[in-house]
């Protein structure tokens, strides 16, 4: 008879411990999930805002307004990078804003950062090909003589990644790079694919 109240007490204690654990642990898990989710949403919101500002900066004909919008897009991109430094999209938007502002060397550095390993995982294959093409275009525009070989490497990688989807621009630029380097046969091949 004395064991029965002990068993009932142990069951009550176990039930109370289970109830407390479920309530406490679920609140902890939800708090962590909410804070991670909130940061992701904020990053996406700022990235969309930066992209819109960048598109408006490209579309406007007034240089002063274009520069102002590009600077604001750059600020938004920097905020995205501060929140999520391992996401390549923020670095790419930053590079595009810097390019629009005329800071080509800094834009190239930002593209290089976006296309390094930890950030590279966040890009899809098509996005990676587009980023490589844009980086190659910038390399050719900044200093064709010194960066031509590097641009060719980027474009060859982009052709491999794109695998037949919208490669005309890539092959045109690749043909120009081959032609500048004096590889006329490869240039003709690339331009014929164009």
Automatic annotation (TrEMBL):
<dbReference type="InterPro" id="IPR011990">
    <property type="entry name" value="TPR-like_helical_dom_sf"/>
</dbReference>
<keyword id="KW-0812">Transmembrane</keyword>
<protein>
    <submittedName>
        <fullName>(rape) hypothetical protein</fullName>
    </submittedName>
</protein>
<comment type="similarity">
    <text>Belongs to the TTC36 family.</text>
</comment>
<keyword id="KW-1133">Transmembrane helix</keyword>
<feature type="transmembrane region" description="Helical">
    <location>
        <begin position="6"/>
        <end position="26"/>
    </location>
</feature>
<keyword id="KW-0472">Membrane</keyword>
<dbReference type="InterPro" id="IPR038906">
    <property type="entry name" value="TTC36"/>
</dbReference>
């Amino acid at each position: 008879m004395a064991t029965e109240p002990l068993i009932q007490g142990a069951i009550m204690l176990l039930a109370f411990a289970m109830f407390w654990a479920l309530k406490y642990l679920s609140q902890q898990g939800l708090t962590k999930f909410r804070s991670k989710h909130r940061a992701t949403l904020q990053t996406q919101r700022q990235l969309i805002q930066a992209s819109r500002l960048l598109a408006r900066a490209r579309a406007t004909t007034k240089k002063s307004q274009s520069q102002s919008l590009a600077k604001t897009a750059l600020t938004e991109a920097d905020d995205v990078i501060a929140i999520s430094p391992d996401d390549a999209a923020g670095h790419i938007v930053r590079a595009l804003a810097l390019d629009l502002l005329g800071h080509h060397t800094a834009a190239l550095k930002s593209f290089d950062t976006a296309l390094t390993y930890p950030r590279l995982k966040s890009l899809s294959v098509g996005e990676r090909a587009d980023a490589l093409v844009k980086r190659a275009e910038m390399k050719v525009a900044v200093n064709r003589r010194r960066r031509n070989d590097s641009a060719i490497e980027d474009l060859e990688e982009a052709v491999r990644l794109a695998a037949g989807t919208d490669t005309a621009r890539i092959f045109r630029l690749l043909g120009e790079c081959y032609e500048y380097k004096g590889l006329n046969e490869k240039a003709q091949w690339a331009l014929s694919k164009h």
